[in-house]
Amino acid sequence: MAPISAYAAVEQLTADVGDVHAHRAGQSRCRGRRSTTATSPRSDAVSGVNLDEEAANMLRYQQAYAAAAQIIAVANEMFDDTRSTR
After folding, report:
1. Which element (helix H / strand E) includes 2?
2. On the CB side of 53, how many CA atoms lie within 13 Å of its CA?
3. What are the domain boundaries of the chain?
4. Residue 71 and residue 11: Cα distance in Å, rounded?
5. What is the pLDDT of residues 52-86, one digit of tens each?
């Protein structure tokens, strides 16, 4: 196996974490949609807020936050390893 750069490793890790979170979010979104389908059109008309769109946005932000946290954790570990080798 050929060595890869730190940038490539972080890029791949981010993609992997995003894929996992997207898959989980899709599963939970399907479960959540079933429970709110009956009231959603009436609520949307009254409040002017599309709950499906808001839920999708919230999941997108959650995924981005989780991916960023994972990148920071890996970067911290890399820095700690670099410091310990000196």
Report:
1. none
2. 5
3. 13-85
4. 9
5. 999 999 999 999 999 999 999 999 999 999 988 76
